[in-house]
Amino acid sequence: MENNPQQASEDLSLYGLFSLLFRNWLIISVFGFLLAIIAAVWAIGQPNIYKPETLLMPATDSSGGLGGLAGSLGGLGGMASLAGISLPESGGDNTKLALALLESYDFLGEFIENNDMLVPLMASEGWDLASDTLIINNDIYDTKNKKWVRSVKLPLKAKPSTQEAYKALLKLLSVEKEQKSKFVRIAIEFYSPTLATLWTNKLVESLNDRLRQVDMAQADKSINYLNELIKESPQVSLQQVFSGLLEEQIKSKMLTQVRDDYVFKVVDSAIVPETKHAPSRALIVIVAGFLGGILGIIIVLFRSGRASHKLSNQA
Protein backbone atom coordinates (compact mmCIF):
# COMPACT_ATOMS: atom_id res chain seq x y z
CA MET A 1 0.00 0.00 0.00
CA GLU A 2 1.50 3.34 -1.08
CA ASN A 3 1.66 6.27 1.30
CA ASN A 4 -0.19 9.41 0.27
CA PRO A 5 2.40 12.24 0.10
CA GLN A 6 -0.27 14.87 0.83
CA GLN A 7 -1.50 12.96 3.89
CA ALA A 8 2.07 12.52 5.13
CA SER A 9 2.69 16.24 4.69
CA GLU A 10 -0.44 17.11 6.67
CA ASP A 11 0.52 14.69 9.46
CA LEU A 12 3.99 16.20 9.54
CA SER A 13 2.59 19.74 9.71
CA LEU A 14 0.21 18.76 12.51
CA TYR A 15 3.07 17.07 14.36
CA GLY A 16 5.20 20.18 13.87
CA LEU A 17 2.42 22.38 15.25
CA PHE A 18 1.98 20.30 18.41
CA SER A 19 5.74 20.10 18.79
CA LEU A 20 6.03 23.88 18.53
CA LEU A 21 3.30 24.42 21.12
CA PHE A 22 4.81 21.83 23.46
CA ARG A 23 8.22 23.49 23.31
CA ASN A 24 6.63 26.84 24.18
CA TRP A 25 4.24 25.59 26.86
CA LEU A 26 5.72 27.98 29.38
CA ILE A 27 4.79 31.06 27.32
CA ILE A 28 1.25 29.77 26.77
CA SER A 29 0.86 28.91 30.47
CA VAL A 30 2.18 32.29 31.59
CA PHE A 31 -0.32 34.19 29.42
CA GLY A 32 -3.20 31.98 30.56
CA PHE A 33 -2.23 32.28 34.23
CA LEU A 34 -1.63 36.03 33.97
CA LEU A 35 -5.00 36.74 32.36
CA ALA A 36 -6.74 34.47 34.90
CA ILE A 37 -5.13 36.41 37.78
CA ILE A 38 -6.21 39.74 36.29
CA ALA A 39 -9.75 38.44 35.81
CA ALA A 40 -9.84 37.10 39.38
CA VAL A 41 -8.78 40.49 40.81
CA TRP A 42 -11.41 42.23 38.68
CA ALA A 43 -14.14 39.71 39.56
CA ILE A 44 -13.47 39.99 43.30
CA GLY A 45 -13.97 43.74 43.05
CA GLN A 46 -17.38 43.39 41.40
CA PRO A 47 -20.43 43.64 43.69
CA ASN A 48 -22.88 40.78 44.00
CA ILE A 49 -26.12 41.01 42.03
CA TYR A 50 -29.33 39.45 43.39
CA LYS A 51 -32.39 38.48 41.36
CA PRO A 52 -35.67 37.80 43.20
CA GLU A 53 -38.42 36.52 40.93
CA THR A 54 -42.21 36.37 41.13
CA LEU A 55 -44.42 33.92 39.24
CA LEU A 56 -47.76 35.21 37.95
CA MET A 57 -50.72 33.91 36.00
CA PRO A 58 -53.43 35.88 34.16
CA ALA A 59 -56.33 36.51 36.54
CA THR A 60 -59.11 35.26 34.27
CA ASP A 61 -62.46 34.62 35.91
CA SER A 62 -64.66 31.95 34.34
CA SER A 63 -67.44 32.47 36.88
CA GLY A 64 -68.55 35.83 35.63
CA GLY A 65 -65.56 37.98 36.40
CA LEU A 66 -64.17 40.69 34.17
CA GLY A 67 -63.01 38.22 31.60
CA GLY A 68 -66.53 36.85 31.20
CA LEU A 69 -68.63 40.00 31.37
CA ALA A 70 -68.67 40.60 27.63
CA GLY A 71 -69.91 37.08 26.98
CA SER A 72 -72.60 37.33 29.66
CA LEU A 73 -74.23 40.26 27.86
CA GLY A 74 -75.38 38.05 24.99
CA GLY A 75 -77.40 40.13 22.53
CA LEU A 76 -76.69 43.31 24.50
CA GLY A 77 -73.10 43.28 23.30
CA GLY A 78 -74.06 44.52 19.84
CA MET A 79 -76.28 47.21 21.32
CA ALA A 80 -73.40 48.29 23.57
CA SER A 81 -71.22 48.79 20.52
CA LEU A 82 -73.93 50.84 18.80
CA ALA A 83 -74.28 52.95 21.92
CA GLY A 84 -70.54 53.65 21.87
CA ILE A 85 -69.81 51.81 25.14
CA SER A 86 -66.63 49.82 25.74
CA LEU A 87 -67.16 46.54 27.54
CA PRO A 88 -64.43 45.09 29.77
CA GLU A 89 -61.65 43.33 27.87
CA SER A 90 -60.95 39.65 28.26
CA GLY A 91 -58.24 38.54 30.65
CA GLY A 92 -55.87 37.74 27.77
CA ASP A 93 -56.17 41.25 26.31
CA ASN A 94 -55.56 42.77 29.72
CA THR A 95 -52.46 40.62 30.04
CA LYS A 96 -51.09 41.97 26.77
CA LEU A 97 -51.74 45.51 27.93
CA ALA A 98 -50.08 44.81 31.27
CA LEU A 99 -46.96 43.40 29.60
CA ALA A 100 -46.79 46.46 27.37
CA LEU A 101 -47.09 48.75 30.40
CA LEU A 102 -44.16 46.99 32.06
CA GLU A 103 -41.88 48.44 29.39
CA SER A 104 -43.56 51.85 29.07
CA TYR A 105 -41.98 55.09 30.25
CA ASP A 106 -45.30 56.35 31.59
CA PHE A 107 -45.78 53.44 33.99
CA LEU A 108 -42.16 52.80 35.04
CA GLY A 109 -41.42 56.51 35.38
CA GLU A 110 -44.34 56.90 37.78
CA PHE A 111 -43.27 53.74 39.62
CA ILE A 112 -39.75 55.17 40.11
CA GLU A 113 -41.08 58.44 41.49
CA ASN A 114 -43.65 56.81 43.80
CA ASN A 115 -41.06 54.48 45.34
CA ASP A 116 -38.12 56.93 45.68
CA MET A 117 -35.90 54.83 43.43
CA LEU A 118 -33.80 57.63 41.92
CA VAL A 119 -30.88 57.50 44.36
CA PRO A 120 -30.66 53.67 44.53
CA LEU A 121 -30.85 53.34 40.75
CA MET A 122 -28.47 56.13 39.78
CA ALA A 123 -26.00 56.48 42.67
CA SER A 124 -25.51 53.04 44.24
CA GLU A 125 -22.44 50.89 43.56
CA GLY A 126 -22.88 47.98 45.95
CA TRP A 127 -24.53 46.62 49.06
CA ASP A 128 -23.25 46.22 52.64
CA LEU A 129 -24.28 42.76 53.85
CA ALA A 130 -23.72 43.52 57.55
CA SER A 131 -25.92 46.62 57.73
CA ASP A 132 -28.25 45.72 54.84
CA THR A 133 -27.67 49.14 53.28
CA LEU A 134 -26.67 50.34 49.85
CA ILE A 135 -23.19 51.66 49.18
CA ILE A 136 -23.60 55.09 47.56
CA ASN A 137 -21.02 56.62 45.26
CA ASN A 138 -20.17 59.97 46.90
CA ASP A 139 -18.97 61.35 43.57
CA ILE A 140 -22.55 61.07 42.34
CA TYR A 141 -24.67 61.75 45.41
CA ASP A 142 -23.72 63.48 48.67
CA THR A 143 -25.59 61.45 51.29
CA LYS A 144 -24.69 63.85 54.11
CA ASN A 145 -26.20 66.90 52.44
CA LYS A 146 -28.65 64.88 50.32
CA LYS A 147 -27.47 66.57 47.15
CA TRP A 148 -26.61 65.35 43.66
CA VAL A 149 -22.98 66.19 42.85
CA ARG A 150 -22.27 64.17 39.71
CA SER A 151 -20.40 65.85 36.88
CA VAL A 152 -22.19 65.59 33.52
CA LYS A 153 -22.39 67.49 30.25
CA LEU A 154 -25.44 69.40 29.09
CA PRO A 155 -28.29 68.73 28.49
CA LEU A 156 -27.91 66.33 31.43
CA LYS A 157 -28.06 67.77 34.93
CA ALA A 158 -26.48 66.81 38.25
CA LYS A 159 -29.77 65.30 39.34
CA PRO A 160 -30.64 62.43 36.99
CA SER A 161 -33.88 62.77 35.08
CA THR A 162 -36.71 60.28 35.21
CA GLN A 163 -35.77 59.26 31.67
CA GLU A 164 -32.28 58.22 32.82
CA ALA A 165 -33.71 56.29 35.76
CA TYR A 166 -36.25 54.63 33.45
CA LYS A 167 -33.48 53.37 31.17
CA ALA A 168 -31.52 52.12 34.19
CA LEU A 169 -34.55 50.23 35.57
CA LEU A 170 -35.36 48.77 32.16
CA LYS A 171 -31.89 47.16 32.10
CA LEU A 172 -32.50 45.57 35.51
CA LEU A 173 -36.05 44.38 34.77
CA SER A 174 -36.74 41.05 33.09
CA VAL A 175 -40.19 39.83 31.98
CA GLU A 176 -40.66 36.34 30.57
CA LYS A 177 -43.96 34.91 29.36
CA GLU A 178 -44.26 31.15 28.96
CA GLN A 179 -46.13 30.52 25.72
CA LYS A 180 -47.67 27.15 26.67
CA SER A 181 -48.61 27.71 30.30
CA LYS A 182 -49.21 31.50 29.96
CA PHE A 183 -47.36 32.04 33.24
CA VAL A 184 -45.37 35.26 33.54
CA ARG A 185 -42.08 35.65 35.44
CA ILE A 186 -41.00 39.10 36.57
CA ALA A 187 -37.64 39.80 38.20
CA ILE A 188 -35.46 42.80 39.07
CA GLU A 189 -31.69 42.43 39.38
CA PHE A 190 -30.01 44.71 41.91
CA TYR A 191 -27.21 45.01 44.47
CA SER A 192 -29.60 44.86 47.42
CA PRO A 193 -31.68 41.67 47.66
CA THR A 194 -34.07 43.43 50.04
CA LEU A 195 -34.79 46.34 47.71
CA ALA A 196 -34.95 44.11 44.64
CA THR A 197 -37.57 41.92 46.33
CA LEU A 198 -39.57 44.92 47.53
CA TRP A 199 -39.55 46.50 44.07
CA THR A 200 -40.52 43.26 42.32
CA ASN A 201 -43.58 42.70 44.52
CA LYS A 202 -44.60 46.36 44.40
CA LEU A 203 -44.30 46.35 40.62
CA VAL A 204 -46.99 43.67 40.35
CA GLU A 205 -49.19 45.50 42.84
CA SER A 206 -48.79 48.80 40.98
CA LEU A 207 -49.53 47.13 37.66
CA ASN A 208 -52.79 45.66 38.96
CA ASP A 209 -53.75 49.01 40.48
CA ARG A 210 -53.00 50.94 37.28
CA LEU A 211 -55.23 48.75 35.12
CA ARG A 212 -57.90 48.70 37.81
CA GLN A 213 -58.01 52.51 37.76
CA VAL A 214 -58.22 52.56 33.96
CA ASP A 215 -61.18 50.16 33.91
CA MET A 216 -62.90 51.94 36.80
CA ALA A 217 -62.63 55.27 34.99
CA GLN A 218 -64.06 53.65 31.85
CA ALA A 219 -66.89 52.07 33.86
CA ASP A 220 -67.77 55.42 35.50
CA LYS A 221 -67.81 57.10 32.10
CA SER A 222 -70.06 54.38 30.67
CA ILE A 223 -72.43 54.50 33.68
CA ASN A 224 -72.86 58.28 33.36
CA TYR A 225 -73.44 57.97 29.63
CA LEU A 226 -76.05 55.20 30.05
CA ASN A 227 -77.92 57.19 32.71
CA GLU A 228 -78.21 60.07 30.24
CA LEU A 229 -79.44 57.70 27.50
CA ILE A 230 -82.11 56.27 29.82
CA LYS A 231 -83.35 59.76 30.66
CA GLU A 232 -83.41 60.93 27.06
CA SER A 233 -84.81 57.77 25.42
CA PRO A 234 -88.57 58.04 24.70
CA GLN A 235 -89.10 54.31 24.08
CA VAL A 236 -89.56 51.87 26.95
CA SER A 237 -87.87 49.05 25.00
CA LEU A 238 -84.71 51.13 24.55
CA GLN A 239 -84.78 52.10 28.20
CA GLN A 240 -84.85 48.41 29.13
CA VAL A 241 -81.87 47.70 26.85
CA PHE A 242 -79.88 50.59 28.28
CA SER A 243 -80.84 49.50 31.80
CA GLY A 244 -79.39 46.05 31.06
CA LEU A 245 -76.17 47.63 29.84
CA LEU A 246 -76.10 49.84 32.92
CA GLU A 247 -76.47 46.82 35.18
CA GLU A 248 -73.49 45.13 33.52
CA GLN A 249 -71.36 48.26 33.84
CA ILE A 250 -72.19 48.52 37.55
CA LYS A 251 -71.28 44.84 37.93
CA SER A 252 -68.03 45.50 36.10
CA LYS A 253 -67.16 48.36 38.43
CA MET A 254 -67.98 46.27 41.50
CA LEU A 255 -65.73 43.40 40.38
CA THR A 256 -63.00 45.90 39.58
CA GLN A 257 -63.06 47.22 43.13
CA VAL A 258 -63.17 43.90 45.01
CA ARG A 259 -60.49 41.94 43.12
CA ASP A 260 -56.97 42.38 44.49
CA ASP A 261 -55.25 40.34 41.76
CA TYR A 262 -56.91 42.30 39.00
CA VAL A 263 -54.84 41.32 35.95
CA PHE A 264 -52.15 39.07 37.40
CA LYS A 265 -52.68 36.52 40.16
CA VAL A 266 -49.54 35.94 42.23
CA VAL A 267 -48.66 32.24 42.23
CA ASP A 268 -45.30 32.66 43.96
CA SER A 269 -44.30 36.07 45.30
CA ALA A 270 -40.69 37.23 45.29
CA ILE A 271 -38.67 36.46 48.42
CA VAL A 272 -35.32 37.87 49.52
CA PRO A 273 -32.67 35.62 47.88
CA GLU A 274 -29.90 34.25 50.06
CA THR A 275 -27.52 33.53 47.20
CA LYS A 276 -26.27 35.88 44.50
CA HIS A 277 -27.31 35.67 40.86
CA ALA A 278 -24.11 37.20 39.47
CA PRO A 279 -21.21 37.53 38.90
CA SER A 280 -19.99 33.95 38.41
CA ARG A 281 -16.41 34.60 39.47
CA ALA A 282 -15.16 31.05 38.91
CA LEU A 283 -16.51 31.06 35.36
CA ILE A 284 -14.95 34.45 34.69
CA VAL A 285 -11.52 33.18 35.81
CA ILE A 286 -11.81 29.98 33.74
CA VAL A 287 -12.84 31.84 30.59
CA ALA A 288 -10.09 34.43 31.09
CA GLY A 289 -7.48 31.68 31.57
CA PHE A 290 -8.69 29.95 28.40
CA LEU A 291 -8.53 33.20 26.41
CA GLY A 292 -5.08 33.88 27.84
CA GLY A 293 -3.93 30.47 26.64
CA ILE A 294 -5.27 31.21 23.15
CA LEU A 295 -3.45 34.55 23.21
CA GLY A 296 -0.25 32.73 24.16
CA ILE A 297 -0.70 30.29 21.25
CA ILE A 298 -1.20 33.18 18.82
CA ILE A 299 1.97 34.86 20.07
CA VAL A 300 3.97 31.62 19.75
CA LEU A 301 2.72 31.09 16.19
CA PHE A 302 3.44 34.71 15.31
CA ARG A 303 7.01 34.47 16.64
CA SER A 304 7.57 31.17 14.83
CA GLY A 305 6.30 32.67 11.58
CA ARG A 306 8.60 35.65 11.86
CA ALA A 307 11.57 33.40 12.61
CA SER A 308 10.82 31.23 9.57
CA HIS A 309 10.50 34.32 7.39
CA LYS A 310 13.91 35.62 8.52
CA LEU A 311 15.58 32.27 7.83
CA SER A 312 14.06 32.12 4.34
CA ASN A 313 15.29 35.65 3.61
CA GLN A 314 18.82 34.82 4.79
CA ALA A 315 18.85 31.70 2.61
Itemize the secondary structure elements and their pairings.
Blueprint: H1 5-23, H2 25-45, E1 53-58, H3 69-72, H4 76-82, H5 91-101, H6 105-114, H7 118-123, E2 124-128, E3 133-136, E4 141-142, E5 147-148, H8 162-172, E6 173-177, E7 184-188, H9 193-232, H10 236-258, E8 264-268, H11 281-314
Antiparallel strand pairs: 1-7, 1-8, 2-3, 4-5, 6-7
What does this structure look like?
The chain has helices at 5-23, 25-45, 69-72, 76-82, 91-101, 105-114, 118-123, 162-172, 193-232, 236-258, 281-314; strands at 53-58, 124-128, 133-136, 141-142, 147-148, 173-177, 184-188, 264-268. By secondary structure, the chain is an alpha+beta fold. It has two domains: 27-46 and 279-302; 53-268, no CATH class. A four-stranded antiparallel beta sheet has the order 6-7-1-8. The radius of gyration is 32 Å and the shape is elongated. The two termini are 37 Å apart. 25% of the residues are buried.
| N-end to C-end Cα span | 37 Å
Q: What's the rounded overall pLDDT mean?
A: 79
Number of helices: 11
Number of domains: 2
Quickly list its features.
single chain, 315 residues, alpha+beta, 4-stranded antiparallel β-sheet, 11 helices, 8 strands, 59% helix, 11% strand
What can be said about this structure in brief?
With 315 residues, the protein is α+β, with helices and mostly antiparallel strands. The chain is built from eleven helices and eight strands. Mean pLDDT is 79; it is low at 7-12, 61-83 and 87-92.
